[in-house]
C-alpha cells in the first residue's frame, strides 16, 4: 500500500507550475507575513478541467515536534461566469521562534505538491 506522503511531489517552483512558492516577511511585534502562490513564474491553468483546488501552509518551530497548520485556502471559481480564483494566499502568524514554513498545493489532475522555506 502506498503512503500518502509518497504521493507528494516537489520541484523548483521556477521550472514547475505546480510547486507552491513561499515568501516570508518579518513584521513588528514578532509577526510574520507568509505568502504562498502557485504559478508565479509559470502560470498554472485555471479551468474547470484543470486547476489548483487548494493551498495549505504549515509552520514547524525549530524545537517543535510537528508542523502546525497556519492557513488553509480553497479556490472555487474556475471560469464560472468568467470569474477565476488565483492560487495565492497571504496570512500573518506571531512567533519569536525560528523554524520552517511548508506549503502543500493540490492540482485536480497532477496531485499534491510541496515546498518549504526556513525562517531564521
TrEMBL record:
Gene3D superfamilies: SOR catalytic domain. Keywords: Electron transport, Iron, Metal-binding, Oxidoreductase, Transport. Residues 11-115 form the Desulfoferrodoxin ferrous iron-binding domain. Its EC number is 1.15.1.2. It is an enzyme of class 1 (oxidoreductase). One of its GO terms (molecular function) is iron ion binding. It comes from the Bacteria. SUPFAM superfamilies: Superoxide reductase-like. Belongs to the desulfoferrodoxin family. This is Superoxide reductase.
Amino acid at each position: 500500500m502506498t503512503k500518502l506522503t509518497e504521493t507528494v511531489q516537489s520541484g523548483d517552483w521556477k521550472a514547475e507550475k505546480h510547486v507552491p512558492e513561499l515568501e516570508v516577511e518579518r513584521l513588528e511585534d514578532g509577526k510574520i507575513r507568509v505568502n504562498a502562490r502557485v504559478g508565479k513564474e509559470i502560470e498554472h491553468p485555471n479551468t474547470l478541467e484543470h486547476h489548483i483546488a487548494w493551498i495549505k501552509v504549515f509552520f514547524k518551530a525549530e524545537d517543535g515536534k510537528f508542523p502546525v497548520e497556519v492557513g488553509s485556502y480553497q479556490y472555487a471559481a474556475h471560469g464560472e461566469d468568467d470569474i477565476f480564483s488565483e492560487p495565492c494566499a497571504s496570512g500573518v502568524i506571531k512567533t519569536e521562534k525560528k523554524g520552517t514554513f511548508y506549503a502543500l498545493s493540490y492540482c485536480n489532475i497532477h496531485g499534491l505538491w510541496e515546498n518549504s522555506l526556513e525562517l531564521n
